[in-house]
Amino acid sequence: MREVVIVEGCRTAIGRRKGALSHYRSDELAAIVLDDVMKRSGLDKALVEDVIVGCVTQSSEQGGNIARTAALIAGFPIHVPGVTIDRQCGSSQQAIHFASQAIASGDMDVVIAGGVENMTRVPMFSNMEGYKPSEQLTNKYEIVNQGISAEKIADIWGFTREQLDVFSLQSHQKALKALEYGVFNDEIVPVKLSDGEVFREDEGPRTDTSLVALAALKPVFIDEGKITAGNASQMSDGASAVLLMSREKAEELGLKPKAKIIARTVVGSDPTLMLTGPIDATQNVLAKAGLTIDEMDLYEVNEAFASVPLAWLEETGANPDKLNVNGGAIALGHPLGATGTKLLISLVNELERMNGKYGLLAICEGMGMANATIIEKI
């Protein structure tokens, strides 16, 4: 199997729902990062053999295979194909895996993996209007929404409302510190808005967040529950992309890769708890890599709800000081299809800043699944 390397990556700043990117078409937003990731590499777009884009709500302007339409908008030659995939919140992480597998097997040399979601313009579940799950499914499993799953996880692991809120506050504090020090500046592609303003900083982190403010929020899913808008990920708008290739191709083109992908996995998990998949996915991917959790320098575990990374920490024995060190989706936002590649880009860059070696990325997914990836800085 050939070595797969990460050559470049970029993302838009993440917009709040109904925020700065709310009037920006999803296909045009995706085109921005597809164009920019190639500009950063200095390569001809004609070299790309496929564009794989994650997008969860594939309706309206996010329908019709947005990977292909965005690539055409971005000026890729017509011979460059595109495909759009949905593995729920891990869609663009799965795009990374599919691209890596194509390269490792020798089918392709140069592939872009990316993701996009404008949750303002194409609301979550708008592609499922009128849908009810099959009785053949509900007779086998208790099918609930993710908020109920997060509540169940909090109860099973015994997390209090205060623990969830403390985790959420820390996410905002870390994100605000990252913004203050310009941690994300190099990975963000400025987006020129219709009013002439340039959008270049994540909108999600709140300077006025406090434990008092978080405690005042009412539960969303259960009257006496623990999950609120404050300890759940934010609905967001954004796009991201990474350029992957074989190590041999990178050397042939005179490029210096940033990192290599050394292990990847995807697992199914309990469709009712739904969000516990990162626990098994982490154990699985570590075994594939022949590494331990203690050997990881950083972890990015998506903060779908605060109970998810807290349960992951407890079950894996991971060091909380290495987790989401620049904040997570509770503060920075979660533009569904774009989150996987967004987190990979941030993980690669933070490993470079700290001169670390190994990074782990894990994302929970709807209906009980999870992807996990381990990278090694070059």
UniProtKB/TrEMBL annotation:
Keyword flag Acyltransferase: yes
Gene Ontology molecular function, alphabetical: acyltransferase activity
Domain Thiolase N-terminal: from-to ranges: 4-248
Ranges where the Thiolase C-terminal domain occurs: 255-377
Keywords, sorted A to Z: Acyltransferase, Transferase
Pfam families hit by this protein: Thiolase_C, Thiolase_N
PROSITE patterns: THIOLASE_2 (PS00737), THIOLASE_3 (PS00099)
Name by which UniProt lists this protein: Thiolase family protein
